[in-house]
Amino acid sequence: MLVFTGGIGLVQHIGVLTSGGDAPGMNACVRAVVRMAIYRKVKISGIMRGYAGLLAGEMKPMDLGSVGDIIHRGGTLLRTARCKEFYEPEGQERGARRLQEAGIDGLVVIGGDGSFRGAQALMRHGISVIGIPGTIDNDIPGTDYTIGFDTAVNTVLDAINKIRDTATSHDRTNVIEVMGRRAGHIALLSGLAGGAESILVPEVPFDVDVVCARLMRGHNRGKLHSIILVAEGVGSAVELGKQIEQKTGLETRVTILGHIQRGGSPTATDRIWASQMGSRAVDLLLAGKSGLMLGVRRGELVEVALDKAMTERHGLDQELYQLAGILSI
Amino acid sequence: MLVFTGGIGLVQHIGVLTSGGDAPGMNACVRAVVRMAIYRKVKISGIMRGYAGLLAGEMKPMDLGSVGDIIHRGGTLLRTARCKEFYEPEGQERGARRLQEAGIDGLVVIGGDGSFRGAQALMRHGISVIGIPGTIDNDIPGTDYTIGFDTAVNTVLDAINKIRDTATSHDRTNVIEVMGRRAGHIALLSGLAGGAESILVPEVPFDVDVVCARLMRGHNRGKLHSIILVAEGVGSAVELGKQIEQKTGLETRVTILGHIQRGGSPTATDRIWASQMGSRAVDLLLAGKSGLMLGVRRGELVEVALDKAMTERHGLDQELYQLAGILSI
Amino acid sequence: MLVFTGGIGLVQHIGVLTSGGDAPGMNACVRAVVRMAIYRKVKISGIMRGYAGLLAGEMKPMDLGSVGDIIHRGGTLLRTARCKEFYEPEGQERGARRLQEAGIDGLVVIGGDGSFRGAQALMRHGISVIGIPGTIDNDIPGTDYTIGFDTAVNTVLDAINKIRDTATSHDRTNVIEVMGRRAGHIALLSGLAGGAESILVPEVPFDVDVVCARLMRGHNRGKLHSIILVAEGVGSAVELGKQIEQKTGLETRVTILGHIQRGGSPTATDRIWASQMGSRAVDLLLAGKSGLMLGVRRGELVEVALDKAMTERHGLDQELYQLAGILSI
Amino acid sequence: MLVFTGGIGLVQHIGVLTSGGDAPGMNACVRAVVRMAIYRKVKISGIMRGYAGLLAGEMKPMDLGSVGDIIHRGGTLLRTARCKEFYEPEGQERGARRLQEAGIDGLVVIGGDGSFRGAQALMRHGISVIGIPGTIDNDIPGTDYTIGFDTAVNTVLDAINKIRDTATSHDRTNVIEVMGRRAGHIALLSGLAGGAESILVPEVPFDVDVVCARLMRGHNRGKLHSIILVAEGVGSAVELGKQIEQKTGLETRVTILGHIQRGGSPTATDRIWASQMGSRAVDLLLAGKSGLMLGVRRGELVEVALDKAMTERHGLDQELYQLAGILSI
Fold first, then answer.
1. Helix (H, G, I), strand (E, B) or coil at A252
2. Measured between beta carbons, which residues in chain D are less than 8 angstroms from residue C241?
3. Which of B211, B292, C326, D158 has the fewest CB atoms within 10 Å, i.e. is most exposed?
4. Neighbours of D282 (CB within 10 A)
5. Active-site residues of B: which are they?
6. Residue A10: CB partners within 8 Å, gap ≥ 6?
7. Across the interface, do C262 and D224 touch by the CB < 8 Å criterion?
8. pLDDT in tens, B3-46
């Protein structure tokens, strides 16, 4: 485990970047990093477009005003991009050199686990790094929560509300595909909160016949509509919709929410955790800490070793999954 | 043209039904029909599930409270359904008999042009009928506006706002498929209002190479994202997204909004027109009128002969289409 | 009436400013002015903070990118301010000189009737001017619609929806104060669309005893809640709430929506009219027109002489007012 | 401490009521109680209008369909009311008798601490009771979270977003009064998440001169607007606005959000905790438990003795309060 601990004042100049997929709340986090750094009287620079911008030397000093009026905006003002070059040792070395040339000795990386691997590489070249989990999928090991997750779940919920209106009027089955390639967290929480009849996630094998039997049971009991939430990792919602229609004879419609789920003004929860994590990251760097990711565990802000964040899976809440099944009978 | 004009008091008992696809604002319209009928001291009954419910005899008397607390809800409390049986003369005759047995001599039909054809058939059996255009697609001849259209456009707009957040962060092209099998009204208005780079509608032929050239021009000028609105009548958005990605090399994402567009609490515009149309329909029936559809022309409520509403196409606003092109350069 | 008509190409350099209270959709309008000017290959400058900024010389050339990503934002990127100095002839003369020094010979003024008086003064100094009505109150003579009105009405509607939830649970009367010092348009349309039991506006005298009698009638019939919309021009909502509580004994709560009504992402309607008006204003200036305000009449874009826009009142729609009363029984 | 523990199956018939101020998520909680009871094959009845309805004998058996389509609605379908009679021993005894007559031996009370005092009284008459904290104020001792709080904070946040639009355009100070008579939780969280310049809460004494000095500092630095969040327990926002305007000379506007904060479709967080608490309450009763309140501590569902919930204050998060101050410099 790589955790360096030095004296206060070790870090003179902090850089901050967002990397991987963007998530609502990243702006609130960048704002907190910048303002806390200024409050602590340490230099702060923003690095554009993640590691791609780092390699291209796209950096600029940030002042209080540079993060004014962004706390409520989706996306990230620092933008983000993929950077294959940075997967290679030469790219990583060049990135570290770029930072050193700019005098940046501490880095806050807001992103997913791929981004943290890059951060660890920089650490090996002498840069202090703190990771902050930012992705709507909530699939980062070592933390119960990632920035953007709460907004994404509420965005899906809003879509379910709308679809419910029309489904009720028509006696229809609706299949809604939501994000989550590896993890079903968005599907589970929005499905439970939205009262979905079935929730299909990568973590739990499913049988389409069981889904259909459940549908028919509700239908025969007089239910006016049914909503099935499908995480994209499970497979094609369009295909599933066709199967259901064939097997049950119930009119079935498919919606693919896509990138709507990444946008929108962040919820209070996302802004507040983002603000706490951003400001804590600055304080950790100033306390000489490095190699840590901030996370939320049992409702509290915690520090996790970055390499642990790379390995331990954050599994689906099985109790919630069962509860969703019981309550949507 | 079938327009009967009789004396006041001709109609003793009004029925109201919603038919075809549901649309936000239908509840506000039903409320207006019911309350105006009660205000005019005429009997009023709700018929469930459109013509299907009519044939099945699913009717119930409505009082003031029966339409309380529904003005703000999407969908239709009377529900709606397709009814193949009612396409046939026997079905239509049976429907008319059902009404006569219940003593209903005036009918308000809220729905699309298919629904109005059914209404005309009932008229031939002596029922007075008034049609009210309700469909999110705004594709009914004889009126510039249909109930639900304004809500649907604003729902799409909200989706565009969200996608814009993430598109800006990523330098991406987003293709958004919206409703509109025969007509591009939703795509045009939401695309213009959302600042979409390209709007593809069934009414205007397009060349994917021109779309791509436009994309590249914006991209080369430094645009951080592009949004392409596609009406479903134009073809598969998924297919189009693939083509664009291949031809331009720009990362492209596809969203299919689907039935989200039918739901949601209706906008003020939809509720107000719905209220005006519903109450006017009652007064027309009480004035002995029949065979008319209510519509909006040049911002005012108008009466159109139902058979005209069957034939005259309501074309795309070409000026707006060109304006959208100019403003999104 | 001051309407100069010259040859095409008369105007070489257009300025645009927003003045008076801001309104959602102003950004969409500024965007349309700027982009249409660029499309027509004429120079375009933005003037900050209305006439105050004009006197202070706060102007800057606008390019395509300067109005990117603003169509969906509330407020006005050009900002706005009051300017007492500009009420005086010397101020107006100095303003005209500022424009002439900058080479600006055509001006688009987006704002209320006070702003148009300033525009007329500039016209007398040889500047071509086109006015665009922008204010949430919809109280500008000569047009049925002003930019921002549709958004404000929908914002109030959203508040009514929320209050309805809790009012129904509690058997309560809610008094909601909305904007409208001189005019009750916001109160009327949101009240009708929101199903308010009573709507109090400056245009129609009211008797608090009649309001209370109506409340009690609904209450005795079993209504679970009542909502009373009050335009601020009518008097203190807090005071009214107290009176109602005393006279009826019904628990009464007061909400003052205040400046929430000025904000929010503009609706489709506001963005589309704003876009049409902004682009038309440019074309009018380029056609040598001046002294005109754009407006909406019977659902169509019209040109109105500015001095007419100063005098003719745009009255409350009495038919809608009566309809609201009938439907909320 | 009153905690009875008996054998499984002790409780044969569960009643559920909502009491005190309503809160978004109460419906999701009632749904969970009803459906879990049915799943566990125990009888379940809904009691209308809290203790008032209990005394009046307003109860009805609930089935699966009775809580269909309510998870997304604000308010409470069981309604709520104040009941002075139930404060007295005779009233409480009568309430217990009503339950016993109906065969109800277990009761789930969703509400605030006042409601729990009533529940304790019923317990003394042999009814098993479980309390669930439901109030937007989040001021119930023994739990970090109450149902409705997350929705209320997000509703205030949405209002701040809207006000920010117009404040930025105008260079204005906005004072927003939010709920919280005894506690500043809503003000603190929405103020932190909304980037408010100052947050005034009952728990922290404030000096209006310090607030003004802070405002002027921001203003002089070029801030275009300032937002001050005020919990109602602090005093009149209208009065405060006047003082600020006098002392700073800055244009100041006041908004009183009022009962908007109680309404709206509940957020995912509120629906999920509500679902978990509701279903757990049933299981506790069936396990022979009584005299407990469910709560959330460190992100997990916990059981707290009801009498503890009456006494221990849930204080303001001082760290968050300071963070808000630092980040809004």
1. strand
2. none
3. C326
4. 26
5. 137
6. A105, A128, A285, A286, A288
7. no
8. 444 444 479 999 999 999 999 999 999 999 999 999 999 999 99
